[in-house]
Amino acid sequence: MQHLVDTDNFSDAQIAQLLHDAKNFKSQHPPKLLRDKLLVTLFFEASTRTRSSFEVAAKRLGASVVHLDPSRSSTKKGETLEDTFANLCAMEPDGIIVRHSDNKTPKILANMQMTPVINAGAGNYAHPTQALLDLFTMVEYFNGDIKGKTIAIVGDIVSSRVASSGIRLMRRMGMNVLLVAPEQFMPTSDLPQYKNLEDVMDRVDVIMSLRAQLERHETELFEDYDDYARQYCITKERMKDRDILLLHPGPVMRNIDISDEMLDDPRCKVLTQVKNGVFMRMAILKLLLLDA
Ligand code: ASP
Description:
- This protein has 292 residues and is an alpha/beta fold.
- The protein contains 10 helices and 9 strands.
- It has helices spanning 12-27, 49-60, 81-89, 105-111, 128-141, 161-172, 225-232, 236-239, 260-263, 270-291, and strands at 38-43, 64-68, 95-100, 117-122, 150-154, 176-180, 193-194, 206-209, 245-247.
- Helix 1 (12-27) crosses helix 10, helix 2 crosses helix 10 (270-291) and helix 5 (128-141) crosses helix 6 (161-172).
């Protein structure tokens, strides 16, 4: 039984397979490969893109999806997460997709070895399907040639599971990763760190902008996000006519993370990421439910 807790659960060959399958699913009408499969989603945190993307991906491949709303489930009556999970597994789903604020939840559930567990976001630790769809988007944009490309991750890096998973995967793929953030948002890391966006603008092929994760801050880290935006918002004045691919996992805080104008700029691929997310998740479901 194979799980997806983070991308290191996949071998290099499996990652290559995922990129290949996602590309195929994007270019041709996908067959209903998962017609007899049933997935359960268990989201303890809010989600717009990831939950619907998994559902669309599953349905495009013919699978059925059941959503459990934890705010109305027995975890509210005192049942442990492990018991809730075991009860769901007793109904014999083919996989459970889980999002939780605790970094360890997907690993704990995967270790129970009852059904394949797919991590749809855990605390600030990992968001592997986002990392893989970002990889797919970059591979597509650079025609397969991402080794040696330089990406700057800009924003609330310390709180971001997208950054954690992304950094691990991008380094593994041979990319150079630079971190750009004010002190409050900078993690402890051996990667090159910058306070000023201007210092990296001439060296990067990709910018990944990140939202300030207010829900994960114990204290207010910034009094005024306009101040933050003046230094870190990705604007046309900052980008000039440089050929830089601009990514963001969403939700975008307009004019704090990325300006209105840049969101409409062809270099900004936020909606391509969302589109590619469905194809990458189809590939992931195929791998975990059929091939593995
Ligand atoms: N949607 C991403 C996540 O779930 C990024 C974010 O929320 O800022 O981590």
